[in-house]
């Protein structure tokens, strides 16, 4: 039986009550054990257990496991993982992670669709009530010997709980490992894992590179770059930019048409900077624009006008004034455009357009350049991206046009 939560006298002075809080699931039975505390000889007598339930729209709670095995599956888009890892140990063949590898807790989750996954340990605490210093490491693979690294995170600024955000791929199984921090002894207690998933129709993330020559290649009006720069190192003759110039991740994006473009590091888990250049090698890079993170926000954002066919080199790093400058990176590229962008997805065709506020847009289809007919429902513009999607074979057509109604 895996413990869900534990608590004791917060300061060992007695006779203070123990207090424990954790999320519960409807119709689930919980076994409660009351005992004296090891630090006192007078640890017997009449005891009282008070249970106070705060009803609410809480997600399902799934106990984490001490070992990499079945029965630890998280399901859905909003769910809690709970555990007490005081008696947990190390699973044989357990991979390296950001923690101290002493009291690890495992969960598993399958992505129901592609989108943004957010994991945090906010609300985890030690038996005495102090915050629990945690780490999260995410892997992919169905056996412990075959796990491959996906993402990781430790303390958020000015807190002890951990946060990880990344794009999850539809159907992929993610193995989630919670551990205490390597440099701290306070690594055991009541663990609370928050899982929140937001489906998003976005391109697959393109991996950024530590090496300029192998930079990730982005294209199209909507593009996403992902990376992890903890092991990145500077290169000789690396140009000056808005960051510290020691853990840069590199991408290249080519404009499919001319017009305004916005690039941001929203979703990056550390204070970040972004610099955009033209050129194809260090000796001929010309700065276009750049920015440090926005105050009290991890993300940096830039805007400029791109010219069709022009390639832009993008450097993402931590800001020059801060030391906490590594972790999971997310680079978002968005370019406004007029007209229709066609994206072939698995077993479906997706049509994308930029919708201006105050306008109504529809899609018409045809087997030739005549006899156009409606293809899907009308969308209202809100100065944002509009999507239409249908499975292949529903109309037998190959031509589409955007209609401003």
Task: Output the keywords.
Jelly Rolls; 27 strands; 405 residues; mainly beta; single chain
Description:
The protein has 405 residues and is an all-beta fold. The chain folds into three domains: 140 residues, Jelly Rolls (Sandwich), CATH 2.60.120; 130 residues, Jelly Rolls (Sandwich), CATH 2.60.120.380; 64 residues. The strands form six sheets. The protein has a five-stranded mixed β-sheet, with no helix packed on it. A five-stranded mixed β-sheet has the order 2-4-9-6-7, with no helix packed on it. A hairpin with a 7-residue loop joins β6 and β7. The protein is globular and about 85 Å long. The N and C termini lie far apart (62 Å). The mean pLDDT is 77.
> What would the average pLDDT be, to the nearest integer?
77
**CATH class descriptor of the largest domain:** Mainly Beta
Shape: globular
Number of strands: 27
CATH topology of the largest domain: Jelly Rolls
User: Topology as H/E string?
Assistant: EEEEEEEEEEEEEEEEEEEEEEEEEEE
Strand order of the largest sheet: 1-3-10-5-8
Low-confidence stretches: none
Number of domains: 3
Structural class: mainly beta
CA radius of gyration: 25 Å
- Helical content (DSSP H or I, runs of 4+): under 10%
Terminal-residue CA separation: 62 Å
Most strands sheet: 5 strands, mixed
Level-2 CATH architecture of the largest domain: Sandwich
**Oligomerization:** single chain
């Amino acid at each position: 039986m895996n413990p869900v939560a534990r608590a004791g006298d917060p300061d060992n002075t007695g006779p203070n009550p123990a207090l424990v809080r954790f999320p519960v699931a409807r119709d689930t039975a919980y076994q409660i054990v009351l005992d004296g505390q090891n630090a006192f000889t007078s640890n017997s007598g009449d005891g009282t257990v008070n249970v106070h339930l705060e009803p609410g729209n809480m997600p399902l709670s799934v106990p984490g496991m001490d070992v990499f095995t079945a029965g630890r599956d998280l399901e859905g888009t909003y769910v809690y993982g709970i555990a007490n890892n005081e008696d947990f140990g190390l699973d044989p063949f357990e991979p390296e992670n950001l923690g101290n590898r002493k009291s690890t807790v495992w969960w598993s989750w399958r992505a129901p669709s592609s989108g943004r996954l957010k994991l945090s340990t906010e609300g985890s605490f030690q038996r005495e009530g102090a915050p629990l210093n945690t780490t999260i490491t995410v892997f992919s693979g169905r056996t412990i010997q075959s796990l491959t690294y996906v993402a990781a995170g430790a303390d958020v600024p000015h807190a002890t709980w951990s946060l990880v955000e990344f794009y999850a791929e539809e159907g992929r199984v993610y193995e989630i490992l919670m551990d205490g921090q390597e440099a701290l002894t306070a690594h055991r207690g009541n663990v609370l894992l928050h899982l929140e998933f937001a489906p998003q129709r976005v391109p697959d993330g393109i991996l950024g590179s530590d090496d300029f020559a192998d930079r990730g290649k982005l294209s199209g009006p909507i593009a996403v770059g992902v990376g992890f720069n903890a092991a990145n190192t500077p290169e000789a003759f690396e140009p000056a930019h808005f960051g510290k110039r020691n853990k840069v991740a590199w991408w290249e994006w080519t404009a499919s048409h001319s017009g305004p473009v916005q690039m941001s590091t929203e979703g990056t888990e550390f204070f970040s900077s972004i610099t955009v250049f033209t050129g194809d090698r260090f000796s001929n890079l010309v700065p276009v624009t750049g920015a440090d993170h926005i105050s009290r926000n991890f993300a940096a954002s830039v805007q400029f006008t791109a010219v069709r066919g022009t390639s832009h080199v993008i450097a993402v790093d931590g800001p020059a004034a801060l030391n906490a400058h590594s972790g999971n990176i997310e680079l978002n590229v968005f370019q406004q455009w007029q007209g229709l962008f066609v994206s072939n997805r698995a077993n479906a065709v997706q049509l994308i357009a930029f919708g201006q506020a105050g306008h109504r847009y529809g899609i018409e289809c045809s087997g030739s350049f005549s006899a156009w007919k409606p293809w899907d429902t009308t969308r209202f513009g809100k100065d944002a991206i509009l999507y239409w999607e249908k499975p292949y074979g529903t109309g037998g057509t190959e031509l589409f046009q955007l209609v401003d109604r």
